[in-house]
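pasting for ref
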Amino acid sequence: MAGGVDWVQLRERDLAGAALAALCDRVAAAARARRADVRILVNRRVDVALACGADGVQLGFDAMPVAAARALLGPGAAIGVSAHAPAEVQAAADAGATHAQLAPIFAPLSKATTRAPLGLAALRACAGALPVLAQGGIEARNAGDVVRAGAAGVAVTGAILAAGDPAAAAHALRSALDEAARR
């Protein structure tokens, strides 16, 4: 939070509901103690998002439909959809999602992938559909490129969590995003 992170997505697939809810409560309390306006999203688990008062969910390919999540979470909730192609971003927009995460833009820093990087052209192809968060291989040195290609923001794991100084890495990323947005 000190480095400028404004959204936190909890993505713990191996945790059962109660354990994930407890983690969500702890993470939200710690994050909001540092930054009151941080948004907390829970990956795939609408029930946990509801139980914890999270700001929304990130739905994957095997999650419930956007309309069902919206009916449960209400009109103000952030409902993101994970996408791997511009057509999937458009489908998310048509379904009523508030945003999409498009991945991988570049080779991921935090894990191996079997998907070829989509590149900046995929972001450009999504222009106007809905806000898109670029994901996969995003770090301070290329964050400006993804914003200039049309991304509304970025979703990162490795750029921050694998850094020797996560706060400094987050700050560098935030600075690069802010500079690109100003231009």
